[in-house]
Design brief:
Number of strands: 19
Largest sheet: 5 strands, antiparallel
Order of helices and strands: HEEEEEEEEEEEEEEEHEEEE
Shape: elongated
Helix content: 10-25%
Structural class: mainly beta
Distance between the termini: 117 Å
């Protein structure tokens, strides 16, 4: 009789355990995924260099999340919480590059950063002289660099203009595109329409300042600063010069 009661108890217990196992446990929500991307690295001209050892970092997260590129320039930022991020790219000898407003959401897979940036080393070109003079309705700007640009070895630069005499790559109204130099000094002719399109009016005094740059300037638009940033400029340059818009 006791054996019968014991057997019944065991069966009842197994039934309880079995019923409990029928409940589907709630799975933990997915809150993280990887961010994957790549870069192409160059010297200050157009020759590709070692793509490895660039540090890619997600800004504004604690603990910090970073990755290092391999020889192919690829990287994987592991287990990044879903959100909107800025990502920085840094390597010794290269100007820092940034991407803003990266949307990292739960799509069921990693976030892939499209459009691998081409990033260059910082410029070793120094601007050693700048002059600006009127020639009829044009302004001729002459810029001398060291080293000099030649047909066989080009150098690179860009200039910035403002009505403020403290014009610089951080304080400007207008920035030029990158300019390839194959002659020293290089002369740039600015017409009245060029200056009007740059935001200046006839009779205004304009200041211009030039910097050595790289072919790949690593430039980016910074929404926090509300301007473009040019990380590869050589800060060694001469003072701004002025001219009056014809």
């Amino acid at each position: 009789m006791k054996l019968k009661h014991l057997t019944f108890g065991i069966i009842a217990l197994l039934g309880i355990v079995s019923c409990g196992g029928d409940d589907n446990p709630t799975s933990e929500p997915v809150t993280k995924a990887n961010i994957i991307g790549s870069v192409n690295l160059y010297d200050e001209a157009t020759t590709q260099v070692d793509n490895s050892d660039m540090i890619i970092k997600v800004e504004g997260v604690t603990p910090s999340i970073s990755a290092t590129t391999n020889s192919e320039g690829s990287f994987t930022l592991q287990e990044v919480p879903f959100g909107t991020y800025s990502i920085s790219y840094e390597k010794q000898g290269f100007g820092t590059f940034k991407k803003f407003n990266i949307e990292h959401s739960n799509t069921g897979s990693s976030t892939i950063l499209t459009g691998a940036p081409s990033l260059g080393q910082m410029s070793t070109t120094t601007v050693t002289g700048v002059t600006a003079a009127a020639n009829g309705n044009n302004i001729v700007v002459s810029i001398t660099t060291n080293p000099a640009g030649t047909n066989s070895t080009a150098r690179y630069m860009r200039y910035f203009m403002s009505k403020n005499e403290s014009v610089s790559h951080e304080n400007y109204t207008f920035n030029s595109s990158g300019i390839t130099i194959r002659i020293n000094p290089i002369e740039i002719t600015l017409s009245q329409s060029d200056l009007t399109n740059a935001g200046f009016s006839s009779g205004e005094t304009v200041y211009i300042r030039a910097y050595g740059d790289s072919f790949w300037s690593n430039e980016y638009e910074d929404p926090n600063l509300n301007r473009k940033v040019f990380p590869n400029l050589n800060s060694s340059t001469v003072n701004a010069v002025s001219f009056v818009v014809p």
